[in-house]
Amino acid sequence: MESKLEKYKGIHPGIILERELQKRNLRKGPFALSLEVYPQTLNEITKGRRALTPEQSLKIDRALALEEGTMFLLQAYYEIDKARLKLNAGNYPDLGDIAKALFWDTDFEKIDWEKKYKTVIRRVFERGGEKEKEAVLRFYGQDKIKEVIGKSIFKDNQLSIPGHKLTK
């Protein structure tokens, strides 16, 4: 079960429930009543504004023929992700050195620099200038840069950032 849920980790289970109900052409009101849950409560859950209780999650699992505990496990993953983000709130590179335009498709203030390090490193090294590359190198270190970029940006066994010699 866990491998099936891997791609949903960190997403509010209500949002996943909303999508599942749409795929099955089920309306929220009648579905909520079948669970003996107020429709307003289910609406709050599907909007991501309210957490699932163990009882609600079991009812949803049974109604949708999901493996028991699926929805509550998603709730746990979501809560863990929220706590991790809170703990890592101050853990980010020097944002003054990174142009917000590099991340035009994302809310710059909400980037999870630890979890999305591969995406950040790739984007900066594909589209960023020397200043951005230096900031990312200082924050993530040589090993993470090598892990993500590999051979693709090395020329003559060196990464071209002024003042930094990063060899393979």
Explain this structure.
The chain has 168 residues and is mostly helical. It folds into two domains: 2-87, lambda repressor-like DNA-binding domains (434 Repressor (Amino-terminal Domain)), CATH 1.10.260; 95-159, no CATH class. It is 53% helix and 2% strand. It contains eight helices and two strands, in the order H-H-H-H-H-H-H-H-E-E. The protein has helices at residues 2-5, 13-23, 28-34, 39-46, 54-63, 70-87, 117-127, 130-149, and strands at residues 154-155, 158-159. Strands 1-2 form a two-stranded antiparallel sheet. A hairpin with a 2-residue loop joins strand 1 and strand 2 (158-159). Helix 3 packs across helix 4.
Structural class: mainly alpha
Look at the structure and give the mean pLDDT.
86
Low-confidence stretches: none
What is the CATH level 1 assignment of the largest domain? Mainly Alpha
Computed CA radius of gyration, to the nearest angstrom = 21 Å
The CATH homology group name of the largest domain: lambda repressor-like DNA-binding domains
Strand proportion, as a percent range, falls in under 5%
Query: Please, how many helices?
Result: 8
Task: Encode the helix/strand succession as letters.
Answer: HHHHHHHHEE
Tell how many strands the DSSP assignment holds.
2
N→C terminal distance: 39 Å
Number of domains: 2
CATH architecture of the largest domain: Orthogonal Bundle
Strand order of the largest sheet: 1-2
Give the overall form.
elongated
Q: Might you state the CATH topology name of the largest domain? A: 434 Repressor (Amino-terminal Domain)
Largest sheet: 2 strands, antiparallel
Helix content: 40-55%
Organism: Mucilaginibacter conchicola
InterPro entries: DUF6922 (IPR053830), Lambda_DNA-bd_dom_sf (IPR010982)
Protein name: Plasmid maintenance system antidote protein
Domain DUF6922: 99-149
